[in-house]
Amino acid sequence: MTTFEEKIGRDQRFESYLQRWGLRGDPFELELPSVDAFAPFQQDDLRKLKWLLSEGKVGILMGALGMGKTTACEFLVASLREESLTAPDPSKHVMPILIHGAAYKSADELLSAIILGLEMDANKDRASLFEILRRWPQEHQERLAVIIDDIPESGADVLEVGEFLRVLADIPNISILLNGELKQMQRFLAEVPALLDRVQIHVELRPMNRKNLKELLELRLKNAGCTNSDGLLTPSGFKSLYKLSKGVPRLALKAASNTIHRAAEMDVPIDARVVKQANKRPLLKRAFSFLR
């Protein structure tokens, strides 16, 4: 049997397995199409951040690697864009822009990235580009929400970036959400106290306890159409997933996704034995593969 035939065979087994459990697809994929894919305790944080971005405020989202910071930001951007398409009142619209801060080496580069995110010409001097943002409240009814991912990892001068963000935060109708790894973000903010003074909301994403992780996995199964989540995800399987991930959402979902594919090959429910077989690689290698 060729590699292609083996692949087709595995896919067919997987599709058959999903149908048997009433699933429409892999329930543990990282993509989150709606707020219903988040467990209730996660939805509270999302509502806080959405309110912040809709009201012209400044917020901080912190957490360790794999806690779902970038995923939350991407979901907020998609949600705000969707709502702006349907809201009849332009003053209620929010234009979100997601900037990957680690990719930029100066405040000028961040400024240009924001302008490009607005689909405007960034081939102008710094003063002209900033004037676009300064005049935003006078020339646009909708609010502008600037979300900067991994800002502490930027190679830019911290004081320069901090002052740029502080001035940006003082412009009406512009919201700012900064996200980053917990300790790096704390160091970043400690160096720019003027920006820290303008932060209204801090959200820290922490590893889940057993109850919360079980709630998340069961919700994923339910939303994917599973008719018997207790039968598919056995107590021993959940215990192994929690032990393997230590409550880190990205690790748990990736391990669960690996496991359900292995369970389909074996045609068995998810138990401790299948979890172990599906995630044999050393933890360090698994962790780095999840970050790609």
Describe it for me?
This protein has 292 residues and is of the alpha/beta class. The chain folds into 2 domains: 95 residues, Helicase, Ruva Protein, domain 3 (Orthogonal Bundle); 151 residues, P-loop containing nucleotide triphosphate hydrolases (Rossmann fold, 3-Layer(aba) Sandwich). Helix content is 56%, strand content 11%. It contains 15 helices and 5 strands. A 5-stranded parallel β-sheet has the order 2-3-4-1-5, with helices on both faces. Helix 7 links the parallel strand 3 and strand 4. Helix 4 packs across helix 5, helix 12 packs across helix 13 and helix 12 packs parallel to helix 14. The longest helix is centred in the first third of the chain and has 18 residues. The radius of gyration is 22 Å and the shape is elongated.
Topology:
Layout: H1 3-20, H2 40-54, E1 58-63, H3 69-86, E2 94-100, H4 107-117, H5 126-134, H6 136-139, E3 143-149, H7 158-169, E4 174-180, H8 182-191, H9 193-196, E5 201-205, H10 210-223, H11 229-232, H12 235-245, H13 249-266, H14 272-278, H15 283-290
Parallel strand pairs: 1-4, 1-5, 2-3, 3-4
Question: Which key terms come to mind for this protein?
Answer:
11% strand; alpha/beta; Helicase, Ruva Protein, domain 3; Rossmann fold; 292 residues; 2 domains; 15 helices; single chain
Largest sheet: 5 strands, parallel
Query: What gap, in angstroms, lies between the N and C termini?
Result: 31 Å
Q: How large a portion of the residues is in β-strands, by DSSP E? A: 5-15%
Helix count, DSSP H or I runs of 4 or more residues: 15
| The CATH C-level class name of the largest domain | Alpha Beta
Shape: elongated
Can you tell me the CATH topology of the largest domain? Rossmann fold
- The helical percent reads 55-70%
Q: What is the average of the pLDDT values?
A: 88
What is the domain total for the residues?
A: 2
